[in-house]
Write a structure and sequence with these properties.
The protein is an alpha/beta fold and about 120 residues long. The protein has 2 helices and 8 strands, in the order E-H-E-E-E-E-H-E-E-E.
């Protein structure tokens, strides 16, 4: 077997809050959205710089409070970009991880965590 891509599913509960966090603040783009009908749960794909996430309001898809590990480069610049936006609900720091990496963790409005990781060498 050879996998070509892994896409994490992240549980959300409020479309407006999810879009404020993932699109307006983190800078993801909405690739597509899906609903089975009016007043049905939302399922959508967002992406940025090679990161693809599926956000879902469907209760059976995944567990709230999950954590996604994102290997990246340019973390210091991204961190600066986020702080300059002055998002009132999240002001992440940069940390040196014991596995020889720089990390930044953000927590979405639903308790899910995104851990951005940049290896130092």
């Amino acid at each position: 077997m050879e996998a070509s891509k892994v896409i994490p599913l992240i549980r959300i509960f409020d479309e407006a809050k999810a879009l404020e966090f993932y699109v307006d603040w983190l800078g993801f783009t909405i690739d597509w959205t899906h609903r089975f009908g009016d007043n049905f749960p939302l399922y959508l794909q967002v992406s940025r710089d090679g990161i693809v996430l599926h956000l879902t309001e469907h209760h059976g898809d995944c567990t709230p409070g999950s954590k996604v590990f994102i290997e990246c480069t340019g973390l210091t610049e991204y961190h600066t970009e986020l702080l300059e936006m002055n998002y009132r609900f999240n002001r992440p720091g940069l940390e040196d991880a014991p596995w020889n990496a720089k990390t930044m963790e953000v927590i979405d409005p639903f308790g899910n965590k995104l851990l951005f990781n940049e290896s130092k060498g």
